[in-house]
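Changelog-adjacent note: as of this version, every example in the card shows the full chain rather than a window. The one below runs 438 residues end to end.
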Amino acid sequence: MVSRRRFLGYSIAGMFTIASGCRPPDSQQVSSPPASSSLKSQFLDSKMGLAGKRNYLLGYPVNMNTPPEGFFSWRRQLRRTGIGDFSYNNVGNPFAESPIPFHTHDFERELILRFAKNYGFPANDTWGFLSHSGTDSNMHGMYMGRTVLKARTGVEPKCYFTKEAHYSIQILRDLLGMESIYVDALPDAWMDPADLKSKISENKNHPALVVATIGTTFKGGIDHIDEIGKAVEGHEHYIHLDAALFGGYLPYTDGKNLVQFTDSSIAERRYDSIAVSCHKFFGFPSPAGLFITTQSNFDEFNKEYSNIHDPEYIGHVPGTITCSRDAVKPAEFWYFSNAGDMRRQAKDALFIMENTTFLMNELLSHFPHLNPVRSNSLSNTVYFKKPSDELVRKYSLATMHLTSNSERDEYAHVMVMPHASKKVITEFLEDMDKHMRN
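Full-length structure tokens:
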């Protein structure tokens, strides 16, 4: 736990550093060049009107609600200690001793352990860190998986995922130099375990790095990790979960089991690592991500990683691809791991489930010709044939071409986030009706 004494220790360190002259006096601070003043004014003026439009962002998985006042109070406390006011750096492994005192590893460790508990990781076998983004978390999961599988077998693994997975997986697979094996997706957008098993048997001489998606990007499908586990049984494998959005709210729903590391009926782990975005469901006002795995996975990975990278300079093998890491984000996101804010998150999860059901029922009742689909009852995503361009612009709807019943049409989707109130959804439906009539 980060105690008040520990926090005051930060405060003393921060005040001492400022008093020691590490922060330049105001007279030495560089002001903005005069030529930039008009640009600054134009930019700020253009952004002033956006605040009133944020609740109309329906096409992308970002929580546009302002965090509670408690978060900003916490942020001010951090600033008074110097965190966010002068340079702090979370270089290295947050579960190892840092060579410099200006870090927030204490907060980072605690938030990882708190969220790991939400996902059913054992308290005595947990490792992770706060990454720069969900993609960064996926990169670490895939890199860890590739490294341990190659170390175990001496053979490069092949990467298995569906075309419903987030586009970052294709980028990262290319970056890591891995061969892709595309697995078929079933109509509700989840990975076909039978096809996965078949394709693994065709490549039985290579270990399998499986990237499962808990909440596919456009359709909101959920890969069934237990079925995936059965498909890879008896074959050397590593399963990484991309749960960028759904991993935030599922622990507060009847679908909690879908992201649990262990299950009462299954003795062994169900997956190896998980990535969850901080700026999506939680509403953290800056891109960041959780990466959580087991300490045993990390130790196995880090043993191999130390053969590649031995940074005597910082006193330990960091286990992260990125070297210097943002120290402000872990300290700030720590607020979202407290019990009070988790109660808020539980309410938000219920809110989005109820409003997604409302949206789906209304679309089925009034716009069945748009072929609305909700892949599963735990998805906050409803997709349907694309409405007018004006509605797409007003509500920032994401669009894609999909093939249904041998016909290729352009579709749009709505992702019901905590800012998407029933009032906003009703306005969207009324606008839809108006444009259909014109």
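Structural remarks: DSSP finds 14 helices and ten strands in the chain.
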